[in-house]
Amino acid sequence: MSQVTVEAVETVGTRTAALELRTPEGFAADPGQFVLVRATVDGVEETGYYTLSSPDTDGTMEITVEYVPEGTLAPWLAERSAGETIEVEGPFGDVRYTGEGSVVVLAEGPGIGPAVGIAERATRAGHDAAVVFWGEDPPHHGRLDALEADGASVHVVGSLTEAADTLAETDGTVYAFGFESFVRDARTVAEGVGVADEDLRAESFGAR
Ligand SMILES: Cc1cc2nc3c(=O)[nH]c(=O)nc-3n(C[C@H](O)[C@H](O)[C@H](O)COP(=O)(O)OP(=O)(O)OC[C@H]3O[C@@H](n4cnc5c(N)ncnc54)[C@H](O)[C@@H]3O)c2cc1C
Q1: How are strands ordered across the β-sheet holding 85-92?
Q2: What's the CA-to-centroid distance between 51 and ligand 1, angstroms?
């Protein structure tokens, strides 16, 4: 468990904030992995998992939080300010990208965080990267524009079936990040176009 300093909080989309955190001594993780955040909100201890949205944890690392007004921990996190500290444990999770090979990342909602982190790590290493966002108006549009300028492809889709060609063409790893039903659909579509089980890495953010 570490007390981690918040370096910056930025609104990066509708009800979505990115928190840049100072990486604690001895902590290292890859995009796709997640941390446990623990906080006392209105006198009650709350915990939640948040996935890294930075390409690495060198010096600082980032999480991207999507919140609903009736939520507890997520809106509290979005209200933090630079200089405050939060309690973080981890990293957790086997789904991670270490910079090897091309990637296609399927994402919904806050899943866009690990999607940009992984795509940035891939393009930086000279690999092909594609981000497929299911929904409208994805958060992190500035980083998505920069990824496109660096040669990555970005697709905003209303149905994951629109990603079939991108999935069928890749010789790399397919990642999926989002809530439970999205991850289930992503698996179905990827398997339907012949993505092998060992090339598909999915992390569910739980039911909602
Ligand atoms: C492995 C893992 C990784 C995760 N990574 C991330 C991440 O990177 N970013 C992130 O934002 N979340 C992530 N989550 C989800 C996160 O841990 C919380 O569940 C989420 O932030 C809601 O917390 P809350 O306490 O504010 O809301 P709660 O008090 O738990 O929820 C209140 C109500 O609002 C609904 N709700 C909450 N959030 C949403 C939402 N975004 N959209 C629609 N309905 C919602 C809940 O279903 C519930 O009905 C992850 C979860 C897991 C298991």
Answers
A1: 44-51, 34-41, 85-92, 2-13, 16-22, 60-66
A2: 11
Pocket around ligand 1 at a 6 A CB cut-off = 34, 46, 48-51, 63-68, 70-75, 109-110, 113, 203, 205-206, 208
Write down all domains in the chain, each with its CATH number in brackets.
Answer: 2-92 (2.40.30.10), 103-204 (3.40.50.80)
- pLDDT of 208 reads 80
**Nearest ligand 1 atom to alpha carbon 67:** 41
Distance of CA 132 from the midpoint of ligand 1 (Å): 21
Q: From ligand 1's centre to the CA of 142, what distance in Å?
A: 24
Does the pLDDT value for residue 80 go beyond 90?
Answer: yes
Q: What is the pLDDT of residue 1?
A: 74
Question: What is the residue-averaged pLDDT of the chain?
Answer: 97
When mean pLDDT is compared across 10-14, 34-38, 204-208, the lowest value belongs to 204-208
